[in-house]
Structure formats: structure tokens, C-alpha cells
């Protein structure tokens, strides 16, 4: 009996001792400020006022000087800022992989990283100081980037690859991922741009996947030389292409919300679907927009608002589905770019010319005819719609309706059923 009691007591004491060690020795968190005393060395304890190199639970403050951060470093919070309104400023240079919970880069600070991955698991507050160097900025699920361009901010392009599975908030100014480099943007989450602000995606390769959401009253400008889309993309104000840089879009995706097509080309065997209650606005001055071996499938509304032509090449297809509306508000042309493999326009919904006193054509002149098939309705409320063009053709058992003083012209053979109204 005595031995049993003693053994129980020993076990209780041992258990109590282990619990006490866990309780009284929590992870220590220090705020450490970089002193920039010794050879730009992050890993020298004499460079930190806390007496040690910041660890995984610490806050590292770099208000001045260059700090070369070794690859594999992890800290809780990293603040890079200026000590005296820009005369001196922090310059943090990751030499490879860096992991932080929170990161702050002010408008005067600099963050030129070497190739590697900078992962922010919590919040990145960026006020416009340059972040560059060819590293990859990784925002995993739950992470947030808040970008604010302050007055007199330094260049605000992200000179890095970007992987966003969290949330990007562009609160003011313009945040860009520039072209002319090898940068890659991969997005499967939310980019919210406030009214008056802009985010430009001009990187040579941009991948927009399932889960992508472009929210807010500002603009997301997509001018990449190779933008690949997939899944459903929710957007309030996505603008693809521009009259100067163009842009190339490929892949298969559904656009839920509002998108504007300013220029460039949709290319490469993909399909862009505009669902019910969504809108594609086609405009952008006199520059052409090209469908190259690509299909647009419209179940919602497409507003064709400016005089630049739509050029269909290599068997491109434009499907205006039952219940959908193509609202032609400009005197512009849908023409053929490759006579040997003409584009096809299939209308099962409504094609309506509601503005412009001149002519909207589906195929015209030279060898620019297209194949136009109508099982829906073609309506002219003002001006003229011309269908066919040189080498064009088509079939119809739908309706063609022109108000008094307007005109529908057929310039090449179109086979009509007896029920078609003209």
C-alpha cells in the first residue's frame, strides 16, 4: 500500500512540473529596431537594439539603412519605413524566401528582393514605396494587401511576380504589375478597387482562375500579352485591352457582372461566356478588336458602342443566344480577317441597331464577308444594318424588322425560310 501511494505522488508531481514549464515559459515577443551598424547584416545581433536577431514571434522595425535578409527568415511583423520624412529610409533586401505575418512598407521605404518567395500570411500595408527585384509576392488564403498611394509616393509598380489567394484592396492611386518583364500574375481570389483607383495587370503572363472577383467602383485594366482565364470571374469593372498596348486573352471562362473590351484580341480556341444579367461593353475608339479562333457566347447583353471594327479570324464564332441582346449603338463593322476560314455570327436572340444614323455591317466589301445565321430577330430602329459582304452567306428562319425610314440590306446570298419576315 505504501509503495502504491508513493508512486501516485511521484506521478502527480511529475505532471505538475511539466504543466508549470509550459505555463511559465511562453514564446517571448520583442520589438527590435535595426541600427544599421555592421555591414548591412540582418543576422548580426549587434545590429538590433533588442540585443538579438528578430525571431518568429518578434516585431522587426527597419527605419533606416540596408538590411540584407537571409533566405529562410521568419518574423511576426516587419515594418519598413523612414525615420525622418524621407532623408533616411529603410531598405530591406530579402535574399530569398521570407515569411512574415504582417508587413508594412511606407512611401519612402524600399523593398528590393532577390528571386525567392515573400509570403505574407496576415496583412501587407503598402503606401507606394518600390517593391521590386523579381521575387514572388505570395498572399495565401486569409492574407490581405492594402495599397494606398500617398501624396508624393514613389513609383507604385509591383516589380515582382504576384500570387493572390487572399484579398487585394486598392484604396487609392494606381497599383500596377508592369509589362516588359518576365513577371507572372496568378489570381484566384478577390481584388477590390475603390472608386477613383486603378489596378493595371500588364505583366506578360496573367492567369485568372476560378474564384477571381474584381469588386469595387474602380477599374481593373487587363492589358497582358498573355492573359489566360478559366472558371467564373465575377467583375464589376474589368477592362480588357486598350487602344495602345492591345492585349491577348485566351482560355474558357464565364464573366459574371460587367466587362469592357477596349482593344486587343481574344485568341486560341477558347470561349468567353456572358451569362444572363451580365454585360459586355465593346468600345474604345477606332481601334479594332479581334476574335482569332475564339468564341463569344452571349446569354446576357452586349453593347457595341464605338466605331472600331470587330475582326473575326480563323473560324471565330459569335453566338448571340436565345434571350440575349446585341445592342449595336455604333456605325461599325463585323468583318472577316481570314477569307479562307470565315467567322460565323449565329443569332438566336436579338440583334438591335438602336443608335447611329449610318450603317452597321456584318460583313462588307472586298473579301470581308461573314456567315450570318438568324433564328432570332434582327431589329433596326435607326440607320441601316447590312448583312453578308463579299463572300458572305447564311441561313434564316428568324425575323428581320425595320422601322419606317430604316433599312436592312442583304449583300450576298442568305437562305430564308418562308416564315422569315423581312
Explain what this protein looks like in three dimensions.
Helix content is 5%, strand content 48%. The chain has 422 residues and is mainly beta. The protein has a domain at 245-422. It has a ten-stranded parallel barrel with strand order 8-9-11-14-17-20-18-15-12-10. The protein has a two-stranded parallel ribbon with strand order 3-5. It starts with a helix and ends in a 6-residue tail after the last strand.
Number of strands: 41
The termini sit apart by 109 Å
Give me the Rg, rounded. Answer: 30 Å
Strand content: over 45%
Give the strand line-up of the largest sheet.
8-9-11-14-17-20-18-15-12-10
Quaternary form: single chain
Average pLDDT across residues?
88
Question: What percentage of residues falls in helices of 4 or more residues?
Answer: under 10%
Any low-confidence stretches, pLDDT <50, length ≥5? Answer: 1-26, 416-421
Instruction: State the helix count.
Output: 1
Biggest sheet layout = 10 strands, parallel, barrel
